[in-house]
Write a structure and sequence with these properties.
By secondary structure, this protein is mostly helical. The chain contains 26 helices and five strands. It has three domains: 247 residues, no CATH class; 111 residues, no CATH class; 101 residues, no CATH class. 64% of the residues lie in helices and 5% in strands. It starts with 5 loop residues before the first helix and ends in a 7-residue tail after the last strand.
Length: 604
């Protein structure tokens, strides 16, 4: 592994990334409101030809700028012309792969192939990044654009801040067109702090980054202007709410409001399974401390710098001057990576609105430090490496053992209780029906586990081969989960069967389907819609209250039908009950009615 060249490692990484991510993107149906909400925007772009501000979900304008939806639409055209689960998730997967490859090249050229390849593997298998790569959401694309911009800014620093970083400006433009001004603000802020810590003049750093930041707004402003011409005040209000209101805690409604410690908790959870290795290594803290003392002693005896000598080490000068001196003498790549982690993390601590995906741009930089830490653990022969690998191996064996028990019917359905019992039973039954190539994926973790324990019989301590064997175990677990177990479990929650049942009763040729949801009509903020049903019905669902139709079909939650149908009947409507959903939709039963109206339009 030490003789692996950058070129060979790059192609190895590309193959591993594609094989472990791309084949499984389309296996799971949409099962949350977020994915179909974004996918249907691309659907409406292709259907209507409006690539600026397409209306969808009953006349709603998109909540995010269009770059991500453009990529979904393009991927859909290239993969057959229709927006599908696979094509809508493909941009996120490509974003993770591209970001990982860029990170590998960035660190390989500056820190060597070993640490770069390990960091890349850690990035690919960190839970938060891996999950985001298989989702039709804007966050993974935004993360990749942000991180790659930072890599390009560092190259700009290496060139002495000469010339114009055109590619970085273009990526910031795309990031701004993905989720707003934060796409330019974060890279400029993190890189600006790095420049100041490296001794650049504040005015020079500020003017340069202000110029490149403003340049990155040129393309987005063209879109914002075109969208304003189409959406008017409604569009401006949405832009102010989603961008400035969210960052200044002045939104008219609560959105993802979480306490201050949320970011710490979600960062730890997002680095599963690697966080377990860090925890295990802490049990050998005594050995680590002795090694550090020995290293410090050797440096002192040989006259090597130990980081405490130099300006101010003898007692002269202030603590601040000593700290500044140490920072400016620090390795530039290490400092740059650390600054990106700290600045971005702190940036997202201030708004009340906090989500785990906001922190994803710091994950590749943490992966770099984690790779260095693992290599250091190998250098001190830490037992944590092999203990961690054995835990992963046992987890793979147990996962397959549980599947075999479910397949054989050894797990009784009586173990499930409560309101989710029926859904949990459906999930277990779906897993039990797994067959075909799924068996290959199911068998992968225990096969790799057996290989690990054979590998462990060597008398050698932890080495580089151990680290890459652990990566292989991790990839095996993810492939089994992504390709075999997870699609079965998630499809038991999918609303696609409900949509197909509705389509059989109310096909497009027989009339328009409308929705009424109390929360969507009367609650402030982000409205709720039947997002999954709307996607699988081809964006056919319109708004009942806004359109005030004379006839058609009405989808309404069962509990709300008892309250609102009598009110609608007073307005001249008559309803015929046709269908109750076979699965919960928005956690409740939804009813389908055929309706007609006598008399004038209500309210006119």
């Amino acid at each position: 592994m030490k003789t692996l060249t950058t070129r060979n490692a790059f192609w190895l990484l590309l193959i591993v990334a594609c094989v472990t991510i791309l084949p499984f993107l389309g296996l799971a149906d949409f099962h949350t409101k977020g994915e179909p909400r974004e996918a249907v925007v691309a659907y409406s772009m292709l259907d209507s030809g409006d690539w600026i501000l397409p209306r969808n979900n009953g006349g709603e304008i998109p909540y995010k700028p269009p770059f991500f939806h453009w990529t979904v639409a393009v991927c859909s055209v290239l993969t057959g012309g229709a927006v599908s689960e696979f094509s809508s998730r493909l941009p996120s997967a490509i974003a993770l792969i591209a970001m990982t490859l860029a990170g590998f090249l960035f660190y390989a050229r500056r820190k060597g192939v070993m640490v770069a390849l390990l960091a890349a593997f850690v990035s690919l298998t960190a839970f938060e990044l891996h999950r985001a790569a298989a989702n039709c959401r804007v966050d993974m694309v935004l993360t990749a654009l942000t991180v790659c911009t930072l890599y390009l800014f560092y190259r700009y620093y290496e060139r002495g801040l000469k010339g114009v970083p055109w590619l970085a400006i273009l990526l910031m433009s795309c990031a701004t067109l993905t989720k707003g001004p934060v796409g330019s603000l974060i890279p400029c802020l993190a890189f600006g702090v790095f420049l100041l810590l490296r001794g650049e003049k504040f005015l020079k750093a500020f003017l340069l980054l202000a110029a490149w930041g403003l340049a990155s707004f040129i393309l987005p402003l063209c879109w914002y202007y075109a969208a304003w011409l189409d959406g008017g005040q409604e569009f401006l209000d949405l832009v102010m709410e989603e961008n400035f209101g969210r960052m200044t805690n002045t939104m008219s409604y609560d959105s993802c409001v979480n306490p201050w410690h949320y970011n710490f908790v979600t960062l730890i959870a997002g680095y599963v399974p690697w966080i377990l290795l860090v925890i295990l290594s802490l049990f050998s803290f005594g050995k680590i401390r002795r090694r550090l003392r020995k290293t410090s002693s050797l440096r002192s005896d040989t006259g090597l710098p130990d980081g405490a000598k130099g300006e101010g080490a003898s007692g002269s000068g202030s603590v601040w001057s000593r700290l500044v001196g140490r920072v400016r003498r620090a390795d530039a790549v290490d400092l740059f990576s650390a600054v990106c982690v700290v600045v971005i993390f702190l940036f997202y601590c201030f708004p009340q609105s906090k989500r785990s995906v906001y922190l994803m741009p710091i994950y590749p930089f943490i992966a770099y430090f984690l790779a260095k830490y693992m290599i250091w653990l190998v250098s001190i022969k830490s037992k944590a490496i092999k203990v961690y690998g054995s835990i992963l191996a046992v987890a793979g064996i147990l996962l397959t053992a549980v599947f075999v028990m479910v397949k054989c019917g050894a797990v009784p359905t009586s173990i499930f209780h409560g309101r989710h019992a029926a859904q949990n039973i459906a999930m277990m039954e779906e897993v039990a029906r797994l067959d075909g190539f799924g068996w290959v994926l199911v068998a992968l973790p225990p096969i790799l586990a057996i290989g690990w324990f054979i590998f462990m019989r060597r008398d050698k301590g932890a080495d580089y081969a151990s680290l890459f064997a652990i990566c292989l175990l991790t990839f095996g677990l993810y492939m089994a989960l992504d390709g075999a177990y997870q699609p079965r479990v998630l499809n038991a929650k999918s609303q696609r069967p409900v949509a197909m049942e509705i389509d059989a009763i109310a096909p497009a040729s027989s009339g328009t389907i409308y929705e009424f949801i109390e929360e969507a009509e009367f609650a402030a903020g982000d409205p709720v819609h039947f997002f999954e049903l709307n996607f699988y019905l081809g964006d056919r669902i319109e708004n009942f209250v806004k359109n005030k139709p004379a006839e058609g079909y009405l989808l309404i939650p069962e509990a709300e039908s008892a309250i609102y149908l009598p009110r609608f009947e007073q307005e001249g409507y008559s309803f015929t009950h046709l269908y109750d959903s076979s699965r919960p939709v928005l956690r409740r039963t939804v009813r389908l009615y055929r309706f007609t109206r006598q008399g004038p339009v209500p309210g006119n």
